[in-house]
Amino acid sequence: MTFVDRVIRVLDEYADSEYFENPIQAIREHIETLINTKEDTQELLSYNDLDLNIKNLAIVMSERIYDIVSTYEYRVKIVSIEYDETLAPWQLKFFLTLQYNKDLTNFNIQIIFNSNRYYEVL
Questions:
Q1: Integer angstrom CA distances of residue 81 from 11, 26, 91
Q2: Is the pLDDT of residue 45 over 70?
Q3: What long-range pairs does 113-120 form, CB within 8 A, spacing at least 24?
Q4: Model pTM score
Q5: End-to-end CA distance of the chain, in Å?
Q6: Which fold has domain 22-121?
Q7: CA nearest 33: which of 92, 120, 100?
Q8: In the chain, what percentage of residues exceed pLDDT 90?
């Protein structure tokens, strides 16, 4: 627990309750931040930048997602990435199976890329 969390917890009305941290939710939020952040003035990918067909676009985007998560999220290892292009070109969905390095449990996240160029992680 960080210093700020300890200070807030002492001042909080729930100070007597047990502190619980959800690492899976923290990982999801971190991945969403990473994917929506521009890297070297270039975002992950957007529909405006590409002249690929949908199948190639989904493959390129899944490779970029793999690179970003592998490089910047050290708490997990990617087991698999699948994509769903049924709602393309308005929406692409990516399904990731990740392995949490601390206790080697697998969990799933879903990354949705909408036509508004924002990635949502569920």
A1: 43, 20, 16
A2: no
A3: 113/61, 114/90, 115/47, 115/89, 115/90, 115/91, 117/43, 117/46, 117/47, 117/48, 118/36, 119/32, 119/35, 119/36, 119/44, 120/32
A4: 0.71
A5: 25
A6: Nuclear Transport Factor 2; Chain: A, (3.10.450)
A7: 120
A8: 20
